[in-house]
Structures are given as structure tokens and as C-alpha cells.
Amino acid sequence: MKTAIIIPARYGSTRFPGKPLALIDGRSMLSRVYAKGMQAAIHGRNIAVMIATDDDRIAAHAREIGARCVMTDSRCATGSDRVLQAADNSGEVFDFLIGLQGDAPFTPVGILKALIDTIAENPEFDVVTPVHRLSWRDLDSLRAAKQTTPFSGTTCIRHADGRALWFSKNIIPAIREEEKLRAQSPLSPVWQHMGVYGYRADILRRFVKWPQTPYEKLEGLEQLRFLENDIAVQTVEVSGAHGPLQSGIDSPEDIARAEAHIKAFGDDL
Predict the structure, then answer these.
(1) CA 106 – CA 33 distance, rounded (Å)
(2) CB neighbours of residue 48 within 10 Å
(3) Looking at domain 3-265, what is its CATH homologous superfamily?
(4) Can you state the percent helix, strand and coil of the chain, rounding each to 5?
(5) What Rg, from alpha-carbon coordinates, does the chain have?
């Protein structure tokens, strides 16, 4: 089985133009993400790593950091479309595609390894994606962040077997008797989605042909298109997370939080 880790990176973000090139503690966001992909590729076999972009500035930066880069169409509707187009434009054929967001510099390498292992052990899965259970402290931090950047951070509710039931930019589920639950466990009942996806290539090819779905449009979450078309999304439980920023950086305000994260937990590159 042949797998590609593809990093979609757009310059023209509405909320944060040039985001992949933004510096975090002196190092570009994109270089941090690419380094994580390369570290994970060593874990498996037949794994390629590449950046997918529609912008010459990002392509030039990819060359500077020694990264393989594939140009894609500026009209790609989503990161998933860009992942598939990059795979098609690469000149290779892949069975599974892992989309590693170019704005998620704190994605632990262990998460990518967990996806690689899950795919290898369960090639019948359609889509796989990691989640981690928030501590109460991290839930409080996520709530505070949403006061100023309400679309930062995605949460998930899931079936007992790990299949995703729903994703939202709101914090779900609502929690009754929270003080009682806080006294019972250091972990909250909230699962945070970490924006990495592994897709069977044939499933992703179907996905990009479907129109956007109603809840996908409302939430701004493309993974809801799978759920609204009855495609199972298997969540992979991971641990060892250090807070909500691992879901991605969505705004300039998140850069300050990212640098505070490095100060508090260190830099793993």
C-alpha cells in the first residue's frame, strides 16, 4: 500500500493572508508542518511527503526548505480537493492520502504515526482522523479562545466504536452538572478534533464530486460532507496533547498563543 502525506497550503486565507509563511518563534509555520510530515514518513513504508499550493510564493519557500512541492489549481474548493489534485499531479498512484493542514504546526508526529498504523491495519476504513479528549483546563482555555476567535478549534462527538457522530465549531456536547463531573475526573467529556485526515483515494475522489452540503456550509467544516453523505469517519483516539492550539492556527491572534505554547511546553522540532 502506497501512502502520501500531502500538506495543502494557501496564501490567500481570508482571515489570515500569507498564513503558511507566518513566523512562529523564528520559523515559518509551513516549515514546521513539513518537518512533522517528514518525521512521520520514516515510521512507515512507501510514504511520500509533499506540499500542495496554488501560490508561487509558497512554492518558492518550499524550495528554500528543501520540500517537494506540487502546484494545484487556485479554484480548489477545499483542502481535500487540493490533496487529491496534488496526488494526481504528482505522477504517482497512491492508495491512501493523508492531508496534513499547513496551519497545524503543533500536530504531534505520534498522531501521524497513529494514522499510518490505523490505515495499515484497517485498509477498509473510508476516512480516519484523530481526536483527543480535553482536560478541564484545556477546555477552559478553548472556551476563552472562542471569546475572541469563535471559529478556532473544532470539537467532535463520537460513537462508542470511535465513529464520528458530528463535528462542530461550537463546543459539543453541552455539559450539565459540570462541577460534579469536574470532581469525578480530570478529563472533560469534550473531544477535540485535530485537523488531519487520512482518506482512501477512491473515497476522496467521490467526495470532491459531491456538492457542498448544508451543514458543511454552515459550520465551515468539510468533513461534514462525508457524514451528510453517509460515509463513515473513523476517529483515532490519541493522547499526550498540550492544549487546543493543536487543532490549527486560524488568525493572527493565534500566533501569540502559539509562541506562548512553545514557551510553556517547549519546541519539539
Answers:
(1) 8
(2) 17
(3) Spore Coat Polysaccharide Biosynthesis Protein SpsA; Chain A (3.90.550.10)
(4) 40, 25, 40
(5) 18
Where are the domains positioned within the chain?
3-265
Q: pLDDT exceeding 90 applies to what percent of the chain?
A: 72
Q: What is the pLDDT of residues 47-57, one digit of tens each?
A: 999 999 999 99
Global confidence as pTM: 0.86
**Integer angstrom CA distances of residue 80 from 99, 135, 191, 241, 265:** 7, 30, 22, 24, 31
3 state DSSP class of 101: coil
Number of other CB atoms surrounding residue 161 within 10 Å: 8
Residue 31, pLDDT above cutoff 80 = yes
Q: How many Å from the N-terminal Cα to the C-terminal Cα in the chain?
A: 28
